[in-house]
């Protein structure tokens, strides 16, 4: 019984690959030729936040790095290597750091109990965010709202680290790389732009209106005013 989920996943993959090949015979051969993603997605490992799915995009559209609680630490060589490769070599146009509601890491950081093992070390930056914003967080009595708030603050802290990254800074100055901080609302399936990063609130494009990232079968629009990312 324990193997059922894995066997189902393999069967599902086979069906998906067959469907995609039937839909577009050139899809996989083109993917095999290389990748030219326009977005670097930095997100949480949570199973409810599959970036390509929630963006409505396709394989090859998004370069991805995910970890528990989407923590961006300047000393984490894993994250730093992904950022450097995506920005300096793949030349992505957008770096998106996205947290989410109902985050287990956020809940753990708000608690005073040890999680155990390496997890306590990993969550230390998020607990630092908690202590740095103690008054703000303590004033929020609703537990769910408090969890959402620390998730937003965590994204803000991560964006600050990104904006101080040398590779990111050079790309911003040399070719207009954009950095965005967002929150995925699991309860409704929508991504909310927190107005952080290179362009401030609304995630405006270089022309001050909107910036369109076109994928293979869809596109995502970073639009000002409404403060959210929408998929067309």
From TrEMBL:
Root EC class: lyase
Catalytic reaction annotation: hydrogencarbonate + H(+) = CO2 + H2O
Alphabetical list of InterPro entries matching this protein: Carbonic_anhydrase, Carbonic_anhydrase_CS, Carbonic_anhydrase_sf
Top-level taxon of the source organism: Eukaryota
Cofactor(s) recorded in Swiss-Prot or TrEMBL: Zn(2+)
UniProt key word Zinc: yes
Keywords: Lyase, Metal-binding, Zinc
Similarity comment: Belongs to the beta-class carbonic anhydrase family.
Known role: Reversible hydration of carbon dioxide.
Name of the protein in question: Carbonic anhydrase
